[in-house]
Every structure is written in structure tokens, then in C-alpha cells.
């Protein structure tokens, strides 16, 4: 979920659509692909479109998004895939909505991209 959020943020920031338009059901070669593989390909597409990636910030949202023990590992793996700094944070929703009822997690990401000179 974190990698998918990062993909959507990067694609959107570069004006390249979203996950569905890039890797959706009409592209069976991406069916079942790992999030990190999608993220690596997305970073490549962003650069091919003429942008460099400054950084990506991801927030994992859930009733108990206990990411502290694996935060450093997640940031390293995701940063390696992107080729730029990726940070991960966790937050709760104080019992509100599907995340608050522990029915799922949500991820929000923001990416900074800038035109290559």
C-alpha cells in the first residue's frame, strides 16, 4: 500500500496519470506485480518524462499503524526503488471510518518532482 501510494503521487506530480492508467487491467504484464517493482518502474517513467524526483513522503493511516520497528527498512527499500529519499510515517484516525474500525489501511503520499535541466 505504501509503494502504491508513492506511485500515484509520483505519476500525478509528473502529469502521467495514476496507477490504473499506467498498470491497469489492460496491461496483464503488471498483474500481481510487487509494489516495489511498480515503484521502480514508475520512477523510471517519471524520469523518462523529463522530471527528476526530489523526495516522496508517505503516511500510513490505520487504527494501529505500528511501523516504528520497520520504518528504517521500509524507507531504505522504497528509497532504493525510487532513487531518491522516501520517508514513511504512521498515524491513526482515532476510531473514525474504515481505518478506525481496523477494516483496512490507507496511504497518502506526496512527491516532489522538478523538470530536469
TrEMBL record:
Transmembrane segments: none
GO biological process, any: terpenoid biosynthetic process
Cross-referenced InterPro entries: MECDP_synthase, MECDP_synthase_sf
The 2-C-methyl-D-erythritol 2,4-cyclodiphosphate synthase domain, residue ranges: 2-113
Superkingdom, natural source: Bacteria
GO MF terms held by the record: 2-C-methyl-D-erythritol 2,4-cyclodiphosphate synthase activity
Gene3D superfamilies in alphabetical order: 2-C-methyl-D-erythritol 2,4-cyclodiphosphate synthase
Alphabetized Pfam families for the sequence: YgbB (PF02542)
Record-linked PANTHER family: 2-C-METHYL-D-ERYTHRITOL 2,4-CYCLODIPHOSPHATE SYNTHASE, CHLOROPLASTIC
Protein name: 2-C-methyl-D-erythritol 2,4-cyclodiphosphate synthase
Amino acid at each position: 500500500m505504501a509503494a502504491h501510494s508513492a506511485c500515484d503521487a509520483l505519476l500525478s506530480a509528473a502529469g502521467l496519470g495514476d496507477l490504473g492508467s499506467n498498470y491497469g487491467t489492460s496491461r496483464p504484464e503488471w498483474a500481481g506485480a510487487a509494489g516495489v517493482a511498480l515503484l521502480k518502474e514508475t520512477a523510471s517513467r517519471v524520469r523518462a518524462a523529463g522530471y527528476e524526483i526530489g523526495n516522496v513522503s508517505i503516511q500510513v493511516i490505520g487504527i494501529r499503524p505500528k511501523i516504528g520497528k520497520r520504518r528504517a527498512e521500509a524507507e531504505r527499500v522504497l528509497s532504493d526503488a525510487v532513487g531518491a529519499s522516501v520517508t514513511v510515517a504512521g498515524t491513526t484516525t482515532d476510531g473514525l471510518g474504515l481505518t478506525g474500525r481496523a477494516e483496512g489501511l490507507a496511504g497518502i503520499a506526496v512527491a516532489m518532482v522538478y523538470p530536469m535541466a
